[in-house]
Specification:
Among the domains are: about 50-70 and about 75-85 and about 600-705, no CATH class; about 230-365, no CATH class. Helix content is about 65%, strand content about 5%. It is built from 30 helices and 5 strands. The protein has helices at about 5-15, 20-25, 30-45, 50-55, 60-75, 90-100, 110-135, 140-150, 155-160, 165-190, 195-210, 215-225, 235-255, 265-285, 295-325, 335-355, 370-410, 415-425, 440, 455-470, 475-495, 495-505, 510-525, 535-560, 565-590, 605-610, 625-630, 645-655, 655-665, 675, and strands at about 620, 635-640, 670, 690-695, 700-705. The longest helix is centred in the middle third of the chain and has 38 residues, at about 370-410. The radius of gyration is 28 Å and the shape is globular.
C-alpha cells in the first residue's frame, strides 16, 4: 500500500471513529481555562508555607471559619476557643471547611493549600458558567470575555476568592441559579412547567442563601420571578418591592438627615412594611400590572397617580393612628408622606415607561386584560400551589436552621450580625458605624466601607472626580453622572429592543437588581457597622452581567459584518493573554519558592505570645482569628464577640464582659488599651488587667485576673 492510499485509509478510519467530530465538540475554551487557572493555583498552593498565611489568607474572618471547622472536626463542637459555643458564620461554607480543616491535626498549612485549590476551582467553575450563559444569550466570544474577566480580575480575586471566605461558594451558586433560570426561561415558553423544575430552582436558591444568609432577599425575589412567568407581575413586582423600600427610607433620610435618621428608623421600617402591604394591592387593582394599564403614557400616568395617592393616603393614616394607639413608638414627620408619594410615583413610573419604551410590534401580550380582581381569581390557585413548592424548599430549611440556632446557641440568627448592628447604635466608631451620608446609605459611596457596587462605583467615582475636578464627593454631580450612564444603558437596549428585552430576561437582571438593592437597604435601614467588601457578591455578578449585556448588544449591532465574530474572539484572546499574564505575575511575585526559612513563623505575633505566656494559657484578643489558628499550646479567645457566644454578647451589652472572662479563666489580653476604653468595651475589663511592658503593633500584652 503506497503512502497516498495509507493516508486515505487512515483518514477513513479517523472519520469512521468519529474522532474529528469529537475534537470539534471538545470544549476547548473551557479546557484551556481550567488548565491555565488551576496550574497557576497549583503553583501558588505548593509555594512556601508562610506565603499562605502572610500573603494569601490574611483576614481574621477567614480563620474564624478555619479554627471553628478544625474544632468541629476534632469533636469540640461549634466553638472557636473550645469554651464558648458560637454560630457566627454562614453554614454552607462551614460545612465545606470542616473536612478540609480536619487535616489541620496533621499539618496546619495543608488545609490552606487545599483551600486555595478549592477557591480556584470555584472561580473557574463560575467563569465557565458565565461563559456558557452569556455565550448562549449572545455569542461564545462575549461569554469568553466575561469568563476571562471573572477568573483573572484582581477585583474579583480580592473580593471573592483570596480571603478564603464564603463569597466563593456564594458566587458559584448565584451564577448557577441565573444559569438555571436561563434554562427555565427557554423551557417554560415551550412546555408545561413541572413541580420538579420549580423544586430544583428552589434548592439552588436555598444553597445560595445558605452560602450567605443575606442572599435570602435574592432567593425570595427569584420565587416571584418564577411564579409570575407569563405575567407582567414578574417584571414589575420585584422592582416595585425595591422601589417601595427605597422611597420610604429616602423620605425619612431626607427629612431627618444622617445619622439622625436612625432615631426614626423603627417608624421608617414599619411604614415601609405598611407600604408593601398597601401599595402593591393598590397598584394591582388600578391595573398597573396589566397591559391595559400600559397602553400609552397618558393612561399610565393617570392610573399611577390614582394608585399612588390612594396608597399614600392609607399609609399616611395608618402610621399616625398606630402611634396614637400606642402600637408604635416614635415620632412621625408628616412631610415624609408627600416625599414618599413623589419617590413612589417616579420609581414606579420609570420602570413602566422603560417597559413601554422597549415595546415592539412583536411584543407578546402575555395574560389577558380581565379586570384585576377577576385576573387574580383566575390565577391564584396556580400561584399558590407553585409558591408552596418553591418557598417550602427555601424557607423551610431556613426555619429549621433558625430553630436549631436557638436551641444550640440561644439565639435565632448568627451572633456576629447582631453584634455589628449593636455597634452601629453606639456613639463611638471604633468599628465604623452606621451610614453618615446618603451615598453610603445607598451603597454607592466609592470612598466608604459600604461600597456595595465595586468596582463599577469606584470607576465611576474616579470619572466624576476627573470630569468635575472634584476633591471631595459632590453628591448631586455624582448622581447626575450615574443617571447619564443609566440612560446610556437604556438606549443601548433600545438599539435592538427585541434582543435587549430578551437578554434582560434571560440574564435575570431584574431579580438580581431587586435582590441586590434589598440587601443593601437591609444593612443600612436599621444600622450596621464594620462592612466588608465580600458582602456584595450579587452586586458584583450583576455588574459583570450588565457589562456583558452592553458588550453583547454591541456585538449584535456589528455581527452582520463579515469579520465581527473574529474581531470579538481576537479581543477575547488579547484580554485573556494580557489579564492572564498580569495574574500570573502577581502569583509568581507574591507566592515565591525558597523565600522563607523553614522555621519562619506563620504569624508574626505568634512567637511573642509563646515567649511571654505559659503553655495552656487562655489569651483574649479583639479579633485573633489567624493567631488562634496558628498558635501552639495556647488558646485564643475572641473579645469583640464576632466568633464568641451569645452569652458573651449579652454580657458585653450590659457591661459585664470583664466578669464573664474572669469566670471562664482568661489569663492574658493582647489589645490596644485605648480601644478597650472606648465603645463597645468602655473599660469593662480594666479592673482585671495588669499591664505588662510587652508591645506589638500598637497592642499591649496584659495579665488578666482578679486583683
Amino acid at each position: 500500500m503506497n503512502s497516498e492510499n495509507m493516508r486515505r485509509f487512515s483518514l477513513s478510519l479517523w472519520e469512521r471513529a468519529g474522532v474529528r467530530d469529537q475534537i470539534r465538540r471538545l470544549p476547548w475554551f473551557e479546557t484551556i481555562l481550567i488548565v491555565v487557572v488551576m496550574s497557576m493555583s497549583l503553583y501558588a498552593a505548593l509555594s512556601d508555607a508562610q506565603n499562605l498565611s502572610l500573603r494569601w489568607f490574611t483576614r481574621d474572618d477567614a480563620y474564624y471559619y478555619f479554627k471553628v471547622a478544625q474544632n468541629i472536626s476534632e469533636g469540640y463542637g461549634s466553638t472557636f476557643d473550645r469554651i464558648n459555643p458560637t454560630n457566627g458564620y454562614h453554614p454552607l461554607w462551614m460545612s465545606i471547611c470542616i473536612p478540609i480543616f480536619a487535616l489541620a491535626r496533621f499539618d496546619l498549612v495543608l488545609p490552606l493549600r487545599i483551600l486555595l485549590l478549592v477557591m480556584s476551582g470555584l472561580s473557574v467553575a463560575t467563569g465557565i458558567l458565565l461563559y456558557r450563559l452569556i455565550g448562549k444569550v449572545f455569542a461564545p466570544a462575549i461569554g469568553a470575555i466575561a469568563a476571562l474577566f471573572w477568573v483573572f480580575s484582581f477585583d474579583v480575586l480580592g473580593i471573592v476568592y483570596q480571603h478564603g471566605l464564603e463569597t466563593g461558594i456564594a458566587a458559584f451558586f448565584v451564577v448557577l441559579l441565573v444559569y438555571k433560570l436561563f434554562e427555565f426561561e427557554k423551557s417554560w415558553r415551550k412546555n408545561a412547567v413541572s413541580r420538579r423544575q420549580i423544586l430544583i430552582l428552589g434548592i439552588i436558591a436555598a444553597l445560595a442563601m445558605f452560602s450567605r444568609l443575606d442572599l435570602v432577599f435574592l432567593a425570595g425575589i427569584v420565587g416571584l420571578w418564577i411564579l409570575f412567568r407569563g405575567h407582567l407581575l414578574r417584571y414589575f413586582l420585584p422592582l416595585d418591592i425595591a422601589s417601595i423600600m427605597i422611597s420610604t427610607l429616602l423620605a425619612f433620610v431626607l427629612r431627618a438627615g444622617l445619622p439622625d435618621y436612625y432615631q426614626l428608623a423603627n417608624v421608617a421600617l414599619v411604614m415601609a412594611f405598611c407600604g408593601l402591604i398597601v401599595k402593591i394591592p393598590c397598584t394591582f387593582l388600578f391595573g398597573l400590572y396589566q397591559h391595559s394599564g400600559l397602553s400609552n403614557s397618558r393612561e399610565l400616568l393617570k392610573r399611577l397617580f390614582l394608585s399612588t395617592i390612594t396608597s399614600s393616603a392609607i399609609v399616611g393614616a395608618l402610621i399616625p393612628t398606630s402611634i396614637r394607639l400606642g402600637m408604635l413608638e416614635g415620632s412621625f414627620p408628616r412631610i415624609t408622606i408627600l416625599t414618599d408619594f413623589i419617590f413612589t410615583f417616579i420609581l414606579f413610573g420609570i420602570s413602566r415607561l422603560i417597559f413601554i419604551g422597549l415595546q415592539t410590534n412583536r411584543t407578546i401580550q402575555y395574560g389577558s386584560d380581565d379586570k384585576p380582581l377577576a385576573y387574580f381569581l383566575k390565577h391564584w390557585k396556580q400561584w399558590f400551589s407553585e409558591g408552596l413548592v418553591y418557598y417550602s424548599v427555601v424557607l423551610g430549611p431556613l426555619g429549621i436552621y433558625m430553630l436549631w440556632n436557638k436551641l444550640a446557641f440561644g439565639t435565632f440568627s448568627p451572633v456576629s450580625g447582631q453584634i455589628k448592628q449593636w455597634w452601629a447604635d453606639l456613639p463611638g466608631r471604633a468599628y465604623g458605624g452606621s451610614s453618615r451620608d446618603i451615598l453610603s446609605f445607598l451603597g454607592i459611596n466609592y470612598w466608604s466601607d459600604g461600597n456595595a457596587w465595586n468596582p463599577a462605583s469606584r470607576i465611576i467615582g474616579f470619572w466624576a472626580e476627573n470630569l468635575y475636578k472634584m476633591r471631595i464627593i459632590d453628591t448631586w454631580r455624582y448622581l447626575i453622572l450615574l443617571t447619564l450612564l443609566a440612560l446610556i444603558f437604556y438606549f443601548v437596549l433600545r438599539s435592538n429592543r427585541q434582543k435587549g428585552k430578551r437578554a434582560v430576561t434571560q440574564l435575570a437582571i431584574i431579580p438580581l437588581l431587586s435582590g441586590a438593592w434589598l440587601q443593601v437597604l437591609y444593612y443600612n435601614s436599621s444600622g450596621y457597622a464594620s462592612f466588608k467588601e465580600w458582602y456584595w457578591v450579587s452586586q458584583l455578578i450583576l455588574i459583570v452581567l450588565s457589562l456583558s449585556l452592553m458588550l453583547g448588544m454591541l456585538y449584535k449591532l456589528l455581527h452582520r459584518f463579515q469579520y465581527a465574530q473574529i474581531a470579538f474572539w481576537i479581543l477575547a484572546v488579547y484580554m485573556g493573554i494580557s489579564m492572564g499574564a498580569a495574574f500570573w505575575k502577581n502569583i509568581h511575585t507574591s507566592m515565591p519558592y525558597n523565600y522563607w526559612s523553614a522555621d519562619a513563623p506563620f504569624i508574626d505575633v505568634g512567637p511573642l505570645l509563646e515567649e511571654h505566656t505559659e503553655p495552656g494559657s487562655l489569651i483574649g484578643i479583639t479579633g485573633g482569628g489567624n493567631i488562634g489558628y496558628f498558635i501552639h499550646d495556647r488558646t485564643i479567645l475572641n473579645m469583640d464577640g464576632l466568633i464568641n457566644s451569645y452569652a458573651y454578647f449579652q454580657a458585653l451589652q450590659v457591661g459585664q464582659a470583664g466578669t464573664y472572662l474572669e469566670n471562664i479563666g482568661l489569663d492574658y489580653v493582647l489589645a490596644n488599651p485605648v480601644i478597650l476604653d472606648q465603645q463597645p468595651y468602655k473599660g469593662q475589663y480594666n479592673e482585671y488587667m495588669d499591664h505588662l511592658n510587652i508591645y506589638y503593633g500598637g497592642k499591649q500584652l496584659m495579665r488578666y485576673g482578679a486583683p
